[in-house]
Fold this protein.
Amino acid sequence: MLYLASDHRGFKLKEKIKEYLDKNKIIFTDLGALKYDKDDDYPDFAKILALKILENKNNLGIALCGSGAGMSIALNRFKNIRAGLAFNPKMAEAQKQQDNINVLVIASDFTKESTAFLMVDKFLKTKFLKKQRYLRRIKKLS
């Protein structure tokens, strides 16, 4: 399952990504924020997302906040979460291939809508390469 989460700064772009996913018939669940609230906090949504991702090894997530740093920091505090902040499709692809990220983090303040859609595509379509060196590195994270 694909899960989405954002704080108030990522809310608008998350809503556009939801439209894009719907248009492309990609099933997802929005974990919030479900409405714009300028006083919400990214750690709350990061925790909800991380716990959902950890329910099943095939679950994936897309997280958005203003700079992407907050969501990345919060998500990567959870064991077995590998959240990668990408600024372009090639970064999203490389992180999925080499680091097997299970959460794509998008910096909504710095990412154009069209770029976000391309990153989402790369994240969802790219496969982990499972090369020995990549597996070894991921194992060391545990």
The mean pLDDT is 98.
